[in-house]
Amino acid sequence: MSERTSQSGGGEAEGAFALRGRDVRNIGLRARDAILALITRQGLQAGDKLPSEADLTRLFAISRPSVREALRLLEQDGLLRTEHGRGRYLSAAATLHVERPITSYESITSLLRQTGYKPQTKLLSIAEAPAGKDIATLLRCSAKTPIVRTERLQLHRGQLLVYCVEVVPRQCLPATLINADFERSLNDLLERSGNRPRLSSASVSSVRTPPAIARTANLPADQPWLLITELCFTEQGKPVIYAQDYHRGDAFSFNFSRR
What we know:
Elements: H1 14-18, H2 27-41, H3 53-60, H4 64-76, E1 80-83, E2 87-90, H5 108-114, E3 119-130, H6 132-139, E4 146-156, E5 159-169, H7 186-191, E6 199-208, H8 211-216, E7 224-233, E8 239-248
Antiparallel strand pairs: 1-2, 3-4, 4-5, 5-8, 6-7, 7-8
């Protein structure tokens, strides 16, 4: 087995910088991502040994419990394996990276920006109504629970890229809302009431142009789209968004890894 280990000396690390700034996620999640960045930066391979908890604590200037939480998350994802008395080692999954991974949760706004677009959100419709049986089952609420349903477009320089249909329990949103709130990031809006999504369960299918968009945007009815149907959860496991996001097939591609 390889015993090559990440080096952690030499002053303040790049990883420590990654834990500063305006990132609102908890420190365990941020430390997890910083460890993944460290793995990439130092070119560690499957079977290489990770720095000790003490080394990571010094490297990122955070508490030992936060480091342990980050390591627990990595082990939970199958990226690390522990050999008692020896340390933690990288699995093959930890060194497998794909560009634009569909397995990584991120908002559509963030996805578009990282793909090189300058997204603009246009609100098509917004309505509040009881959840109904089907939506209540998905969002684990009563059929009478008020929900907010929106239709939104994500555009770049006037070009339609994504058509979004999203359903959110009204109680998960701030008490006071205006339509303009929905022309910004929905994740950030949920953050205001402490309900920001952190992960999701999703399926992907190939569809033709949604009829509502064929009419609104004057697009061909037979144009290919990628439909991502997604149920988004907070870190505590509470469902907060049910979304059907239609991505233009000529503007997007996604990749994934399997383990």
